[in-house]
Amino acid sequence: MSVLDSKVPDGPIKDKWTKHKNNIDVVNPANKRLIDVIVVGTGLAGGSAAASLAEMGYNVKAFCYQDSPRRAHSIAAQGGINAAKNYQNDGDSTYRLFYDTVKGGDYRSREANVYRLAEVSTNIIDQCVAQGVPFARDYGGLLDNRSFGGVLVSRTFYAKGQTGQQLLLGAYSAMNRQINKGKIRMHNRHEMMDLVKVDGKARGIIARNLVTGEIERHSAHAVVIASGGYGNVFFLSTNAMGSNVSAAWKIHKKGAFFANPCYTQIHPTCIPRSGDDQAKLTLMSESLRNDGRIWVPAKKEDAIAIREGKKKAIDLSEEDRDYYLERRYPAFGNLVPRDVASRAAKERCDAGFGVNNTGEAVYLDFAAAIKRYGKTEASINGLNTEDEALVIKLGTKVVESKYGNLFQMYEKITDENPYVLPMKIYPAVHYTMGGVWVDYNLMTTVEGCYAAGEANFSEHGANRLGASALMQGLADGYFVLPYTIGNYLAKEIRTGEIPTDTPEFSEAEAAVKKQIDFFINNNGTKSVDHFHRRLGKVMWDKVGMSRNAKGLNEAIAEIKQIREEFYKDVRVLGTANGLNPELEKAGRVADFLELGELFAKDALDRNESCGGHFREESVEVGGEQDGEALRDDVNYRYVAAWEYKGEPSDAVLHKEALEFNDIELKQRSYK
Amino acid sequence: MNLTLKIWRQEDSKAKGAVETYPISDISPDSSFLEMLDVLNESLILKGIVPVAFDHDCREGICGMCSLYINGEAHGPDRKVTTCQLHMRMFKDGDTITIEPFRSAGFPVVKDLVVDRSAFDKIQQAGGYVSVNTSGNTQDANAIPIPKRDADKAFDAATCIGCGACVATCKNGSAMLYVSAKVSQFSLLPQGKVEANRRALNMVGKMDELGFGNCTNTGACEVECPKGISLDNIARMNRDFLKASTVSEEK
Questions:
Q1: Nearest C-alpha of chain A: how many angstroms from B152?
Q2: Is any Cβ of chain A less than 8 angstroms from the Cβ of B223?
Q3: pTM of structure
Q4: Does residue B140 lie within any of the structural domains?
Q5: Which domain range does residue B174 map to?
Q6: Could you read off the pLDDT of A376-395 as tens digits, one per residue?
Q7: What are φ and ψ of residue A381, in 5° steps?
């Protein structure tokens, strides 16, 4: 039997969560005051968890590396948040959201967790509106919705292109209320350096005050890791510059299994790379695919002429354009899931039809939407619907009201006006479905240590649908963790305050100080970024959108090599006793260099194509699905949870078999 | 592009700072301003000079972490962008660019170009929220229709990213635009109206206590705000504050 116990409750799927909640031990309010909880990360998951736990009466100690909890990278999420409200009367339901999410995840998620997510999705919207989150509304004053990739209903709630910002500021305001009451002690500009375990239980963390450089000990009865994803292992990604795997990786090294590290989402609509000094990639929300049509030139000579600047997109007539998503996937068209859209873009560009100077870009065109909206507006206002200039003017206004900030962002970066010329887009690393393995209660394999939000693994399987990340982060933080953690903390009411003057804390602190001293005194010749860029290139070339055994084996060897050179030759200037961004980066890149190897190892083990993980050895041959990803449910219907054993190459694989009792496993067809 | 950079260097909050000059060459006009600083830092590291510390994170203009006073303007010469969205095409080959931290009594320097904006959090903690607990039983999100006009105005105010450009720009070091954005967002929404009086009194009180200056309606903050937060919000906050401090029983 596997060492992994998912602790999924018995009974029909629709009753599991209710039944489980009813059976959870409850901590009496007087005792909650005696219990401390550490929350690392203040994004949607961490922020909402910290606020909710504090409201319940626990003493929360929250940590973020930014100068304010409001800056966590959830703030950058643009498009929206799903909820099965069925306000549009298009047949949406908890079951349909559950079904879409499991299917979208290519049947590699844990069914019971996804059902619970769909179930609490409606509560999230109610909660956020009650907090004063200004969602988009229609003229009747009711909430508006839009569609996202991979689904056929309109269930996405949004606030222009700044949904993540508004939701995070909602959680931040809930935190502020508790900080004001003294129930949350907020530690800004602090980085978690290690987890402290006492008698096998998570009992605290070692943190570095990034301003003073001081190494601090913090204790608690439970530790929650909500530190986000690890997309920056690719160096270039849509993540924030500081986003890192370190908190998750530190608990992995202390016994928490790391699940499905190879499941990475390469988002189809990002602004293409422009030069070698580029430090990050910018996402253009998937919501744009509601109204934008994706195409490349149908003829290679046109693509070449465009790349050489001899032709422009608008010079090409309709017949000379290849709307390849509409052609290949007539049912879903431009709204296929992200993994499908990304691979299709890469396929066209690899075949020589890419459109910017690097040959790595496709068009996202709003001309048709502008005309369509313009006609409707003209008609509503009793104006001439045949007046093309007027129609374009009115339509542009509608598109601006929907996506104004995204268009502005695009123009600032590329210096091109997307209302006139089609946008150029290309896939980029965006989200990591893999993460710390957790059971149904969100507890990791370390007792008393929890993981929430993008940092854990469970809900999105091998591919996340759009507008599901915000839903999961807030579900975990507002509605799941605050209940499930009670089951564990109910046993802690007699423990008393956890002392920090113990050998366990001393030992962890000494190890942290040793690593910092090493970096400061290493006196190498190359910057941290030098190694990070090299790691990123190996990851993108060999562990990126499509993978094969040969490339993965090479990647494993190359990453190991880069790691060795890093320790020999990295140079970190400045001191440990104060703000030192280079020192912070060094610690994070050290962890990425280990994670990267495990990532490739996991991808090598999974000899099937599923979701964001495409193995060139595993494709459909012949028939309608020719060339599409081929999943292998007989051999790979499991969660790969890796146990740390020293070097990443020594990691031991544990399998959690995935059972699907309420959904039939199907070929994921979007044709 | 070849440029001369004049950058404020300061070891820590107590040290005395000074402007250092660094030449930099071969910068692409398509680079962002912060990528240009990345290139500078990379070259400094190779020379054994401690790189310049500056705040940044999302690099897409939404987290509010980046700051910088560039050639005497918060977030530089472009309009409605943060420093991370500023591109080098806004400058000319051969330019000299002066880069300083945000300057305000409310934002002490931490190191080089990094400042401490924790006062902003303290103002929010004084009342920038609706007092509602998490529960699965708040009323349905559509139970109270909100006129689209109000919802949109509340949203516009709520897009403030808390970067502090308004304070850094203001000759009085006033935080009125920042505070009024939050006060307005909530006072425009039925969910926030209940506490509107208390909120205005508490947030304004905290702002004054922390030493931010008053507003003299110059409007420089609105011009430099990367998110285009409107001065109307200040008027709305003043009205709320006046109402709360004269007729309200909660003062």
A1: 7
A2: no
A3: 0.96
A4: no
A5: 118-131+145-246
A6: 999 999 999 999 999 999 99
A7: -95, 10
